[in-house]
Write a structure and sequence with these properties.
The complex is a heterodimer.
Chain A lengths: L15 E8 L9 E8 L4 E5 L6 H8 L7 E6 L2 E2 L5 H11 E4 L11 H11 L4 H14 L4 H4 L8 H13 L5 E5 L7 H18 L2 E6 L10 E4 L11
Helix pairs in contact in A: 3-4, 3-6, 6-7
Chain B lengths: L1 H11 L1 H33 L7 E5 L3 H8 L10 E2 H8 L4 E13 L2 E6 L2 H5 L1 E2 L3 E2 L2 E4 L7 E4 L1 H7 L6 E2 L2 E2 L14 E7 L9 E5 H7 L3 E2 L2 E2 L7 H6 L6 E2 L1 E6 L5 H9 L6 E4 L1 H44 L1 H9 L4 H42 L10 H32 L6
Classes of the chains: A alpha/beta, B alpha+beta.
């Protein structure tokens, strides 16, 4: 299966590249996840469609370097993630990968701005220098200045999800991973959210991997990957 | 940044955190307080009598002799005859003696029959001599000098007349009503049993018992106070006496000579040795108290661990977020340990403050009620060690929730099991 294959034959520098990826939970039979080939260039937006329980979470954990595959390899900007130590993968995630969850992305006791700047410390960057960009991102995402110093929990769900995007994109990461970030939003909010997120990602030059079961969102993306094609145990090793 | 996270996270849960800190403050101040008191009590206790080389009484155990002669606890089994006392007193090595005659009381306070040497030679807490707060030392047969606690608790003034009671109960049915004593002096507080004593002359003791026999008034024979003065008031016996030697080197020699005295069976003890033995017995209680406070502390720390463990459930989301932004599992371990550290440090500082304020208020009460003089500063080597122990134990127990956070961070990854 070839997904996100480059249009030309020229050798490309991929943002993310997966080869013969195999993963299974310890003690389980058969592969939980099998993915032979996936390559994404800078700025590409990929939609992965899959219901919950289809190995989606496993894929996200692999892509973000929380777990490593049993077989095969995973390169983030030519860096072999599967060969890095756990600590190095954590730092790489802080610097190069933004993550947005379904909901409750924010630490409840921190202010909106501190939530956005949270990533700085783990990426060994100074929060002070990034404050300007954080404020700019929040404004782009429609969050006014007066909201910045409020506690995260005082915001609506839609606003919280936009703060999460600001945090994910703060360091202009190579990759943005979004896990059903719109599931808690109504249709109007959802479309506005999608447009804002993809526009900001494009602005930051960030590649997007978006996972959702909602087919309606497919139209926002040029590249699609149905999850059921790489479901557990389907492909023999 | 980790400190900010820990601080704000605690502030966010300030209700439960406050209760945790409160329980820790109680247990830590209890621990430090008990430790402080036991040091102060030991100091105060072992300094009850000093400068005395030997205590001599009728043949008995050394603790019994120490208890009734110095601490006014319990009773002598027998007396020492006046002749024996006179003979031993003339021993060339003996510099001074203080005779003590016990057996009467005044409203629960022991009456000590003695002479002027008591006020000259008795030493406590190093080289401290007894000082008069008011009045003079007794001179007349019916004069009395009160310990400071007796005077303050019973509200006695100079010139007041008091009646001694036979026996040592709080309530006595046979009183020496016919021969009242006049308060001529009140001693300054010493923090020793002297404060709880009523001092009269040996002649006074003799006078009130002149018409008594076998612990009861002789029927049909009454001797008035004035008549008694005309009679021979040389004591027939005393209960014990304290001995000061010319040279400390002679202590064991004189002790042996007294113990082997042929005239009557006597016991001579070294007060330092007896005090140490007594303290050893008391320190069992004191150590038990310390063990209990350590257990209370453990309960407090376990409470903190429980609170943190309970909070881990609601913090799964937090762990996932921190992992997503690049926190190592180890970082989460240290984040929880940092919270433990902040809680414990806050509790230690507060406990110390509570203890100092408590001592400041309690000092007068302890001194006036129990004659226990305690220092205000509870910081000493042992209290610093205890504080270190508290911190160490807290961090050790804190490893449980911290390790849980670490495990969650490692296994759950970005997923949240709700």
């Amino acid at each position: 299966m070839k997904v996100g294959q480059p249009v030309t034959d020229k050798p490309k520098k991929y943002v993310i590249e997966l080869k013969n990826l195999r993963f299974r939970w310890p003690g389980k039979q058969g592969w939980q996840l099998a993915l032979d080939n996936l390559q994404l260039e800078a700025g590409q937006h990929l939609f992965i469609r899959g219901a919950s329980g289809s190995g989606k979470t496993t894929l996200l954990n692999l892509l973000s370097g929380i777990t490593t595959p049993n077989e095969g390899g995973l390169w983030l900007q030519q860096t072999p993630m599967h060969k890095l130590s756990a600590a190095k993968r954590d730092t790489l995630r802080a610097q190069q990968i933004g993550v947005v969850f379904q909901q409750l992305n924010l630490i409840p006791y921190l202010s909106v701005l501190d939530n956005v700047l949270l990533v700085a410390g783990f990426a060994n960057q100074s929060a002070g220098e990034l404050t300007e960009r954080a404020i700019m991102l929040l404004q782009h995402l429609g969050l006014n200045d007066e909201l910045h110093h409020q506690k995260a929990t005082e915001l609506s769900v839609g606003q919280q999800q936009r703060v999460a995007i600001a945090r994910a994109l703060l360091l202009r990461p190579a990759l943005l991973i979004a896990d059903e970030p719109t599931s808690a939003l109504d249709a109007d909010n959802r479309d506005a959210f999608m447009r804002l997120m993809l526009a900001e990602a494009t602005e930051s030059g960030t590649t997007v991997i978006f996972v959702s079961h909602d087919q309606a969102l497919q139209s926002f993306f040029n590249w699609h990957l149905p999850m059921d094609q790489l479901e557990q145990g389907v492909q023999p090793c | 940044m980790l400190i900010k996270l820990a601080r704000l996270s605690l502030w966010n849960r300030r209700g439960t955190v406050l209760m945790t800190v409160l329980s820790l403050v109680i247990s830590i101040s209890l621990l430090l307080g008990i430790d402080h008191l036991r040091h102060e009590a030991k100091n105060s206790f072992t300094s009850t009598v000093s400068g005395t080389d030997l205590i001599v009484g009728a043949r008995s155990g050394q603790l019994n002799l120490l208890l009734y002669s110095i601490f006014r606890i319990g009773n002598a089994t027998a007396n020492i005859s006046w002749e024996t006392y006179q003979r031993i007193q003339r021993h060339p090595q003996i510099a001074w003696t203080i005779p003590i005659s016990l057996g009467d009381s005044h409203r629960g306070y022991r009456v000590v029959g003695t002479n002027q040497d008591y006020f000259e030679f008795y030493r406590y807490a190093g080289q401290q001599q007894l000082q008069l707060a008011q009045g003079v030392i007794f001179d007349d047969v019916y004069d009395t000098v009160l310990g400071s606690e007796v005077a303050t608790r019973l509200g006695y003034q100079l010139g007041q007349e008091i009646v001694l009671a036979h026996g040592i109960g709080q309530v006595s049915f046979s009183e020496h009503k016919d021969k009242p004593f006049t308060v001529v002096g009140i001693l300054a507080p010493t923090g020793t049993p002297v404060d709880q004593s009523v001092h009269v002359s040996l002649e006074g003791i003799e006078a009130i018992h002149i018409d008594w026999q076998q612990g009861a008034p002789m029927p049909g024979r009454r001797v008035s106070a004035e008549q008694a003065l005309e009679m021979d008031l040389t004591p027939k016996a005393i209960t014990a006496f304290l001995v000061g030697l010319n040279s400390r080197a002679a202590t064991f020699l004189v002790q042996r000579q007294i113990n082997e005295f042929r005239g009557e069976p006597l016991t001579a003890i070294l007060p330092g040795v007896a005090l140490a033995e007594l303290w050893q017995m008391l320190s069992m209680v004191e150590r038990l108290l310390l063990v209990i406070t350590v257990l209370v502390l453990l309960a407090g720390l376990v409470g903190m661990t429980t609170t943190l463990l309970a909070s881990m459930k609601e913090r799964q989301r937090e762990i996932a977020i921190l992992r997503a932004v690049g926190a190592h599992p180890g970082t989460l371990f240290w984040l929880v340990q940092l919270e433990v550290l902040l809680i414990t440090l806050a509790s230690l500082v507060l406990a110390m403050a509570v203890l100092m304020v408590g001592l400041w208020f309690g000092q007068d009460l302890l001194a006036s009620r129990y004659g226990l003089f305690i220092g205000l500063n509870p910081i000493r080597d042992s209290s610093l060690q205890l504080m270190g122990l508290v911190l160490g134990l807290a961090l050790l127990l804190g490893c449980i929730p911290s390790w849980l956070a670490y495990r969650r961070a490692l296994t759950d990854g970005l997923s949240v099991r709700l």
